[in-house]
Specification:
Blueprint lengths: L5 H5 L5 E2 H5 L4 H5 E4 L8 E5 L3 E4 L6 H8 L7 E5 L5 H13 L9 E5 L4 H9 L3 E5 L4 E4 L2 E7 L8 E5 L4 E5 L18 H12 L5 E4 L9 H17 L5 H10 L3 H14 L4 H13 L3 H14 L4 H13 L3 H14 L4 H13 L3 H5 L2 H17 L5
Parallel strand pairs: 4-5, 5-6, 6-7, 11-12
Antiparallel strand pairs: 1-2, 2-3, 3-4, 8-9, 9-10, 10-11
């Protein structure tokens, strides 16, 4: 089973382990209990070990009553990790503190992002709870399992996701939701550019399973769900019905290079040899510093047309970026045979000559000499004046 649907989870009225629900056997899933979030409460996750830890206690007072019915001792809950500060994710902690006699609040640690709601932080501290603020990059231990804290702002400023690398499982809060997308909440510091940044960050991880803040559980399809959220955000920027190449151009002009690259990849999935998409993808990779990948695409283009000016220029730049200074010269020379006065080709040839140790030849290229002198002047202008 790859995904547990909302309908199936609605029929599940009590806590069950992830192992039971997803039919996946690993220590984390066998020790993690799940309760589906209803209406004004999020999905709840309880991890069992030497003590109990909760990821998002939700806002459903019946959740803890059910744990009592299952034989859990609620005083064993020692850590509560909050993916962000919205009430449907955090208010259950207050229910826990106030509703169960004998609960030792001073033994509980709440973990949340430093940008979380100040009023909530002051409230839990006033009740005697220990508060740990994270910023992203930390490793936290929940009931014996190590999680990487990934700062994933966008929906709110204080959003975090928790990544368990051994099982490639992400507890994503509201940052990634199956078949849905959380709205940006400006009142909580949410911003679209931050949201896109967060999805870029997650796409760099090898994530197989996503345990979201709302909706169904996702097994094995983690990357697809993350890409779906990424695409949904991009469509909010360029428009739902905008063709891929038009959208890619708009995104590139706005400096959203990763997003533009994503759209060229979608276009090439449909038309593998689309020359416009190939060229744009190669230059985007070049601008992102992925020179080897860009060079491979320029080679493909040159196999079809060995006098393709922009591909020759791009291939030269990719070699230049990888330190292949002498090899890049051949491509710049070929490009200049086609367009002898092209400014970019001349400057890049001068740079390749200069870095190859042929400084005199580089300075013979007038436009490179002017560019070089201008850049030196700019660098000197940055130096502080020494009396």
């Amino acid at each position: 089973m790859d995904e547990i649907s909302n309908y199936e989870l609605h029929t599940q009225e009590n806590w069950q382990t992830l192992a039971e629900l997803l039919k996946i056997s690993n220590p984390l899933f066998e020790k993690t209990f799940f309760l589906f979030g209803y209406d004004f409460s999020c999905n709840n996750y309880l991890i069992q070990g030497d003590y109990l830890a909760i990821i998002d206690p939700g806002n459903d007072y019946t959740a803890f009553m059910q744990l009592l019915d299952l034989g859990f001792d609620l005083t064993d809950i020692k850590k509560i990790a909050l993916t962000h500060g919205h009430p449907d994710h955090v208010m259950g902690a207050l229910e826990l503190f106030r509703g169960y006699p004998g609960y030792r609040i001073s033994e509980v640690e709440i973990i949340m992002h430093a940008a979380g709601p100040q009023q909530y932080k002051e409230l839990v501290e006033s009740l005697g709870c220990r508060l740990t603020e994270v910023k992203g990059g930390e490793t936290i231990n929940l009931s014996g399992f190590e999680f990487e804290v990934i700062h994933t702002p966008g929906h709110t400023l204080d959003g975090i996701s928790l990544f368990h690398e051994p099982t490639r499982t992400l507890f994503s809060g509201d940052t990634v939701l199956p078949h849905a997308m959380a709205e940006v909440d400006p009142s909580a510091g949410g911003r679209m550019d931050h949201y896109l940044y967060s999805l870029r960050t997650l796409r760099k991880r090898e994530i197989q399973h996503v345990m979201p803040g709302h909706g169904g559980l996702v097994a094995h399809l983690g990357r697809q769900v993350i890409d779906g959220t990424f695409e949904g955000l991009i469509k909010k920027v360029v428009g739902v019905d905008t063709p891929c190449m038009e959208g890619a151009m708009t995104l590139a002009q706005e400096g959203l290079l990763e997003e533009a690259l994503f759209y060229t990849q979608k276009e090439l999935a449909v038309d593998h040899d689309n020359p416009r998409a190939l060229e744009m993808q190669a230059f985007l990779l070049l601008d992102l510093g992925r020179n080897d990948e860009a060079g491979g695409i320029f080679d493909r283009i040159l196999q079809q047309d060995h006098r393709h000016f922009h591909a020759l220029l791009g291939k030269g730049r990719s070699l230049l970026g990888m330190g292949g200074f002498p090899a890049s010269l051949d491509y710049f020379d070929q490009a200049l045979e086609i367009n002898p006065q092209d400014r970019e080709a001349l400057i890049n040839k001068g740079l390749a000559l200069y870095l190859s140790g042929r400084q005199d030849e580089a300075m013979d290229i007038e436009i490179f000499q002017k560019e070089f002198a201008w850049r030196v002047k700019q660098e000197f202008a940055k130096e502080p004046l020494v009396p």
